[in-house]
Write a structure and sequence with these properties.
The complex is a heterodimer of chains A (500) and B (423). Chain A has 500 residues and is an alpha/beta fold. Helices cover 55% and strands 11% of the residues of chain A. The N and C termini of chain A lie far apart (77 Å). Classes of the chains: A alpha/beta (500), B alpha/beta (423).
């Protein structure tokens, strides 16, 4: 009884204090372990709105090297915030060990508690357990690595001038989505090793490159077979990696910068593939945890009213035809799916029994945990998007054909449409559908040293031409010799798209 | 246990570097935007920053992107009344209809412009970038005639008024102590010897007397040590340091005769304002003298200068005469940096123009840092322009320019005050 009283007192008033945050953190931690959430230790940092803008502009890196593009992000954030076009995110959380979360001082107590549940236990457990993060990121060393990168780049700026470094960074940024190993696990990050290797690497790399580009004919080259051999022998998806290792004219520090950009890109790669799941998971848990707190009398009615108000805002989905529609809200979609998994486990309908026989009447905690661990957005939607969600969100499919004047409604939320909608929506989150598939195809080693990239189209979708020449110029800057881009369409026809 | 850290007091401007980088990178575009802004701004309006708009295409970070294929399929939420197979007319481009938006994300680059705010300081900085008033540097380097006397430690020679008593006495005391010590020791010993002689069995009066004389001599020596020796004297040292005059006065001279219509006056106004703002950046104190003239010249308040109406003929020399008088009476040239700015449509009595030249040559140009004349005139030049051309030939710190449109003010302003080599 006494404890209950104390709890009640803690939730009254909308101002947060450090004591209250500590108290709620303890409460939520207990609940989280009840729900079997495994997390990294939390490091919760209280910051001001200005600092939040800074954090924002650094695109989620707590320590970023200096680059004008971050200044651009910052100006944009600042402008929108000052004009009231945009509320700042209430929180920002970083995939690191310990898991760093930023809480804004302007938030009310209710928001802070929501964020504790959302970020410090929701996102945190996702970072720790989702297979992509486990496999592709090194949260324990990322902060150190970012610090190393920042220092290295600022040393380069001192030594070679800001402009030169900026040129290289610009070029790398243009290709950063292609600085990712998609299919093999990247090496573990370790700053100490990075540093110690860096010097050796410089020498070693240069020697390798010299070898590669040796103009004196080696003994074996007498055989003609070498002429038909491509280099690289298999197409290379990681363009930045290829450039770092093989571009003939780069200096050692330029290669190191390429490496830094691609390492950071690699770190963010899982986040790009799990937006819906990650946000859905965090939202699901703040909703579940706060509701449990309410049931147990740990928070009062007024707390809940404010909480539900915030929560509803977060998961609000604008219909397609309203102004300001900006795609499907990942919070809405992700939350709906996790909620639905729980519903199917606890209160299945006959429809669910037909669609999800494995989930019906099982333990919901195990079910959502399994989903969280083993999927990414694309497969998650393909696996779990239920007819009920399609009906709730009133999803439908539109086909646009450039030759036809009208758009066609191909599918709607009915019995015939569910499967197709699910399939198409899942594809919409497939990163290889979102980004063109471009790989390094060949280098003319014996001729003009030109580099050929090959773009493999999907659904005969060409490349966007607007910035293409810009990107190619950046590529040229790094490669140092002519660069070509070929496109292969679905029929296998090869066309030369760009040449610089 | 979670760790909770209060970071609110840590450094706040982490992004300042990146913001600076951005501004530097797009300096050219920002400058253009600033120049446009000046044209559109109201005159009294220099107390806030500015919204800068630069073409979004310049700031894009290009990446490989999908183009639009022949057939595109998209899943959308919020179906209300469509059934399978319905045909919908294609929405117009850019009407904000969602079906045209890519599912990925519509960020700022989808607009044509990228806009952001800069502060007033940044605005003015960019605005005045690499402008510099002619001869200013020279003046700052100490060619000005004002000097200020500043303390610079102590010296051992000087005039009595600068005598530093404390230092002198300290020296004297030290010297006295030092010089007395051996003599005192001698005296003490002599006295002991005298005592010994007195108590000795063989009282030898002559020896005692001799010893007494010795003691008197030593005490005399001690007394003769001077209380203050010329060697002890210390004087406050003062050096005269030239200081740049940090005061400036700007003479704004404007023709308000009948031929100057509102539009021309407005142009003139903007020119004066630019001059004023620029000078506020450079000088601590600036005074402005507004002189308006038609056939007669009058010193007026800012309000009257810009806004009151009067008409009549034009005698430019009246204003120049007044300016020369005011300089003579109120602004001694060794204290003030004097700037003159004259705006006129070039109309003047033909007989008066040579007179204007004379006044300028003899009474004004030798005293001013800079004199700028802008002629706001769409037509050909008249006599005043010709006469002024001769002034320009003699005095390099005389500048004249011709403005016909508001857009030209800024470039011309820059032209007038272009950074000059210190010769």
């Amino acid at each position: 009884m006494t404890t209950k009283k104390k709890h009640k007192a803690a939730s009254s008033g909308s101002e947060w204090t450090f004591e209250k945050i500590e108290y709620y953190d303890r409460v939520i931690k207990e609940l989280a372990s009840e729900f079997k959430l495994e997390t990294y230790p939390n490091q919760i940092e209280i910051i001001s709105a200005e600092q939040m803008m800074d954090a924002y502009a650094a695109v989620g890196m707590p320590l970023g090297y200096s680059h004008w593009s971050y200044g651009k992000h910052f100006l944009n954030v600042e402008k929108n915030y000052k004009r009231g076009l945009m509320g700042l995110a209430y929180e920002l959380v970083i995939n690191s060990d310990p898991c760093i979360s930023y809480l804004m001082e302007e938030n009310t107590l209710v928001l802070q508690v929501t964020i504790l549940a959302h970020a410090c236990y929701g996102h945190n457990s996702f970072f720790k357990n989702n297979y992509l993060y486990k496999e592709w990121t090194n949260p324990d060393s990322i902060i150190d690595y970012l610090l190393f990168a920042k220092n290295y780049i600022s040393e380069c700026e001192e030594q070679y001038g800001i402009e030169k470094v900026e040129e290289v960074l610009d070029a790398c940024h243009a290709l950063r989505n292609y600085g990712v190993d998609r299919y093999r696990r990247p090496q573990k990050l370790s700053v100490a090793e990075e540093k110690s290797r860096q010097v050796n690497r410089e020498e070693y790399l240069q020697s390798q490159i010299n070898e590669l580009w040796r103009t004196l004919p080696s003994k074996e080259s007498k055989t003609n077979s070498a002429i038909t051999e491509r280099f690289p022998s298999e197409p290379e998806e990681n363009i930045l990696y290829f450039l770092e290792k093989n571009a003939p004219l780069l200096e050692a520090w330029e290669r190191e910068i390429i490496r830094i950009v691609r390492k950071i890109s690699q770190y963010f790669y899982p986040q790009r593939q799990t937006k819906v799941m990650n946000e859905g998971w965090a939202t699901f848990w703040h909703y579940t945890i706060v509701n449990t707190m309410y049931e147990r009398g740990l928070v009062d009615d007024s707390f809940m009213v404010e909480f539900l108000h915030n929560h509803t805002d977060v998961v609000f989905q604008l219909p397609f035809n309203s102004q300001g529609y900006n795609g499907l809200n990942p919070y809405t979609l992700g939350f709906a799916i996790f909620q639905d998994i729980r519903r199917i486990c606890e209160n299945p309908t006959p429809e669910d029994a037909a669609w999800f026989p494995n989930l019906v009447n099982t333990d919901w905690i195990t079910a959502v945990d399994f989903a969280m661990r083993n999927y990414k957005d694309e497969s998650f939607i393909a696996q779990y998007l239920s007819p009920k969600i399609i009906r709730d969100l009133k999803l439908f499919v539109i086909v646009m054909h450039t030759d036809l004047p009208d758009l066609e409604v191909a599918e709607i939320h009915d019995e015939k449409g569910y499967k197709r909608i699910r399939e198409l929506l899942s594809q919409q989150y497939d990163i290889s559908m979102m980004e063109p598939n471009i790989q390094v195809y060949n280098v003319d080693k014996r001729g003009d040293r030109s580099l050929t990239l090959r773009h493999v189209q999907r659904n005969n979708r060409p490349l966007d031409q607007t910035d293409l020449d810009q990107v190619m110029k950046h590529l040229h800057k790094l490669w140092g010799f002519a660069v070509k881009l070929e496109s292969v369409d679905d029929q296998g026809t090869l066309t030369l798209t760009q040449q610089i | 246990m979670s760790q909770i850290i209060d970071k609110r007091h840590n450094n706040r401007h982490k992004s300042a570097v990146n913001r600076r980088r951005f501004l530097d990178r797009f300096k050219k575009q920002i400058r253009k935007s600033v120049a446009d802004a000046v044209v559109n701004r109201s005159i009294t309006d220099f107390e806030h920053g500015e919204k800068i708009t630069i073409p979004a295409k310049d700031t894009t970070e290009p990446i490989f992107k999908h183009g639009v294929g022949k057939t595109n399929t998209i899943v959308l939420p919020g179906n209300k009344d469509f059934s399978r197979g319905d045909k919908i007319p294609r929405p117009q481009e850019n009407n904000g209809d969602a079906t045209t938006t890519q599912a990925s994300d519509a960020n700022e680059t989808s607009e044509d412009n990228f806009d952001f705010e800069i502060s007033r300081e940044e605005f003015l900085d960019i605005f005045f970038d690499d402008l510099e008033l002619p001869n200013l540097l020279k003046k700052q380097l100490g060619l000005s005639k004002i000097v200020r006397s500043v303390r610079a430690g102590f010296t051992s020679d000087g005039v009595p008024t600068n005598l530093n008593i404390v230092r002198t006495m300290r020296n004297a005391l030290a010297r006295r102590i030092a010089m007395r010590a051996p003599k005192k020791r001698e005296l003490k010993q002599a006295e002991q010897e005298l005592e010994a002689l007195r108590h000795s069995h063989a009282k030898n009066p002559s020896l005692i007397k001799q010893q007494q004389e010795k003691i008197t001599k030593i005490s005399g020596n001690i007394k003769r040590i001077p209380f203050v020796d010329p060697f002890d004297l210390k004087y406050n040292r003062r050096v005269s340091q030239p200081i740049a005059a940090s005061k400036a006065v700007v003479f704004c001279i404007m023709d308000v005769s009948g031929s100057m219509d509102e539009a021309k006056k407005d142009l003139a106004k903007r020119f004066f304002i630019l001059l004023y703002i620029f000078l506020t950046k450079t000088y601590e104190t600036i005074e402005i003298v507004f002189i308006r003239h038609h056939t007669a010249a009058k010193e007026v308040s800012e309000q009257d200068f810009f806004y009151s109406r009067e008409t009549g003929g034009t005698v430019v020399s009246s204003a120049l005469d007044l300016m020369a008088d005011i300089i003579h009476d109120r602004y001694p040239t060794n204290e003030w940096n004097i700037y003159g700015a004259q705006a006129s449509d070039g109309d003047n009595w033909n007989n008066d123009s040579p007179h204007c030249k004379e006044i300028l040559m003899s009474k004004i140009m030798p005293y001013v840092q800079y004199f700028a004349y802008v002629e706001i005139m769409p037509r050909h030049h008249q006599s005043l322009w010709e006469e002024y051309n001769q002034v320009k030939a003699v005095f390099p710190n005389f500048a004249m320019q011709h403005i016909t449109h508001m857009k030209e003010i800024y470039p011309i302003f820059r032209e007038l005050f272009k950074r000059q080599q210190v010769s």
